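Bumping with the actual sequence this time:
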Amino acid sequence: MMMKWLSTALAIGAAACMAASRAAEPAPQAPVAAPAIHIKDVQRFYAVYDAAHGHPTANQLQHDYLDPGSTGLHRLAELRNVTGASMAKAIAAHPEIYVDAKRCMVVLPAARQRLKTALGELARRYPQMRLAPVTIAVGRGKPVGVTDASGVMIGLEALCAVNYLDPNVEDRFVHVLAHEYAHVQQALQSPAFYNDPKPTVLEESLIEGAAELTAELISGSIGNVDLKAMTRGREAEIETAFVADEDKTDLSRWLYNGTLTKPGDLGYWVGYRIAKSYYQHATDKRRALRDILEMSDAKAFLAKSGWHPGMTLR
């Protein structure tokens, strides 16, 4: 929010604070190689889909779309049971999702260019960034995406359907993909922490919150913008309840409880605020982002963050 300063002294003080903040930010560095961002699977799917007048058979989807697909699409298929048969079933059950997704297909070239810029900013702030491809494809309506050390795989139709995330679909894709690319770094740099099969609420919330903060730093906003409205004025209430649950391994109250039409995931928000507190308290921002992305001890990170329930963050 922009503010009008009421005196010259306050204006000078604000300018000094801004200068100090800029000085704490990472200095520019030489450009680095950019990750590949694949969108051709989407084009091939809609060629098959349109040729079949919106009713492709399982065989057509398997042989004309999935089999010649990208490595990322094949990885998504492997991890989330995306087959010609499962896709044909999803299209028959929810045809509106695949019709609606065409509006998101239109913004992909611009979103890809903006994502390249955002990932260049990540490389500037985090020189340890490791490359992995980003793939936007079409799946069986869920999940929205999968990310591991091999890269980011996003289902166009699923992300397009989650309208509460951001009404501007180009912004939605940029911010969510920036979030997911942070997960790639976590998976590569701290695999034991990222892949823990039985994480606590605190651990998983910090994994997601770290990705939200990274997305904000490099793309301009968190991925789950709906959480801002859901939590406004309730921070102390929500975060006090979070502290009571932080050591539990039942994540269902805090994480992965949203649907295509109903928001959830309050743990993302709390984790983001803890990570943001850590970042704002740090004098060395580059070191702080490295600590956030390479986190391996959630309790130690929380203790160093300076966070407490309901605190005010800039």
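The tokens above came from a reply further down the thread. Residues 27 and 124 are 8 Å apart (CA to CA).
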